[in-house]
């Protein structure tokens, strides 16, 4: 859990998600929200652009030896599959998704862009082999009352050397909740290079911005 302080947004589902009392609460909330999640977040007062921006960021940083149609991508906290859908539009063919909520995963399955979908709890060690994926994406999930900074070392473990981690962290929790400190630690330990942590549009229609954190795994 990232932190417990209630946060107010312009969408009631997110208010509830950001003040979830634990994993069971969060899982039920997302199971309930799953059917209308995409429609709700596409509304002009949300304009949730982070998944599309994430896919463009992945495509931007891959090297010629990492063709998008050949590499393995792990979409952590994949939800209904907005990130997988955006990656597939750019040509990605090997995407696995993991998420806490079976309801969200069911929606993601309907998209038919993921090779494998599994439930998981990102606050525990991942059931993913070390050095097995080229890219980890984690969008909208390192957030209030969801998943804290400790998951980042697990992302490093499962990613191959020279692979990439692309994740959003809301501006208002980047430093206070310790994401920045964890990234700095991974940099000091020479496990990653921090390529970018620029702030940009997230839920653009609500005026909410987030860091798009891009780390190259060097371990
Ligand atoms: C705001 S949604 C983001 C989903 C998707 N990445 C997107 O950008 O639309 C947050 C997701 O994190 C998942 N989640 C929350 N806590 C989690 C945990 N501990 N382990 C795995 N997934 C979690 C929720 O089930 C939900 O699907």
UniProtKB/TrEMBL annotation:
Descriptive protein name: Methyltransferase domain-containing protein
Calcium recorded as keyword: no
Highest taxon above the source species: Eukaryota
Organism: Bimuria novae-zelandiae CBS 107.79
Keyword Transport tagged: no
InterPro entries from the UniProt entry: Methyltransf_11, SAM-dependent_MTases_sf
Ranges where the Methyltransferase type domain occurs: 74-166
Cross-referenced PANTHER family: METHYLTRANSFERASE, RHODANESE DOMAIN-CONTAINING PROTEIN
UniProt record, GO biological process: methylation
Keywords: Methyltransferase, Transferase
CDD domains per record: AdoMet_MTases (cd02440)
Molecular functions per Gene Ontology: S-adenosylmethionine-dependent methyltransferase activity
């Amino acid at each position: 859990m990232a932190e417990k302080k209630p946060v107010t947004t312009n969408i009631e589902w997110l208010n509830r998600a950001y003040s979830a009392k634990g994993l069971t609460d969060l899982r039920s909330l997302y199971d309930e929200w799953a059917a209308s999640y995409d429609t709700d977040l596409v509304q002009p007062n949300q304009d949730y652009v982070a998944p599309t921006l994430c896919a463009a960021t992945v495509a931007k940083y891959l090297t010629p030896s990492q063709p998008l149609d050949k590499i393995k991508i792990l979409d952590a906290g994949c939800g209904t599959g907005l990130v997988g859908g955006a990656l597939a539009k750019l040509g990605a063919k090997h995407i696995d998704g993991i998420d806490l909520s079976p309801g969200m995963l069911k929606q993601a399955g309907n998209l038919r862009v993921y090779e494998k979908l599994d439930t998981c709890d990102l606050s525990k060690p991942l059931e993913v082999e070390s050095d097995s994926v080229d890219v980890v994406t984690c969008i909208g999930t390192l957030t209030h009352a969801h998943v804290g900074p400790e998951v980042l070392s697990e992302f490093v473990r499962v990613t191959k050397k020279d692979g990439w981690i692309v994740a959003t962290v809301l501006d208002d929790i980047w430093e206070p909740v310790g994401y920045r400190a964890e990234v700095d630690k991974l940099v000091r330990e020479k496990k990653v290079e921090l390529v970018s942590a620029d702030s940009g549009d997230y839920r653009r229609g609500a005026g909410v911005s987030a860091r798009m954190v891009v780390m190259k795994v060097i371990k």
